[in-house]
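Customer escalation, tier 2.

The customer says the design service returned an amino acid string that "doesn't look like it belongs to this structure." They asked us to rerun it and document both sides in this ticket. The original structure tokens are below, unchanged.
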């Protein structure tokens, strides 16, 4: 069975040092990759609650960052903005 090489997102995620219990140190941002190893269009920092959109290289798209405690409809709107941004980028 052929195993594909790891993507940038997977390598970045895997490079984060974990403690003996297998958990990353508190406060560390861990990138989220999809099943193909690509960056998810919306990234969130688990410790801070901030979320933002990224391009295919994992770079933050300016103006997409939202703070913690956002209302659910704002989060849905934010995710739609990420998806639309990605669609526009691919077009």
């Amino acid at each position: 069975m052929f195993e594909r090489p790891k993507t940038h997102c997977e390598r970045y995620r895997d490079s984060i040092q974990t403690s003996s219990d297998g958990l990353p140190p508190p406060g560390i941002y861990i990138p989220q990759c999809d099943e193909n190893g690509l960056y998810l269009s919306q990234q969130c920092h688990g410790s801070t609650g901030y979320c933002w959109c990224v391009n295919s290289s994992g770079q933050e798209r300016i103006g997409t960052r939202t703070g913690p405690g956002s209302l659910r409809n704002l989060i849905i709107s934010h995710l739609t903005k990420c998806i639309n941004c990605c669609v526009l980028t691919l077009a």
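Tier 2 assessment: The sequence is consistent with the input. The first helix runs from residue 8 to 15. The domain at 32-90 is CATH 4.10.800.10 (Invariant Chain; Chain I). Sent an explanation to the customer and offered a walkthrough call.
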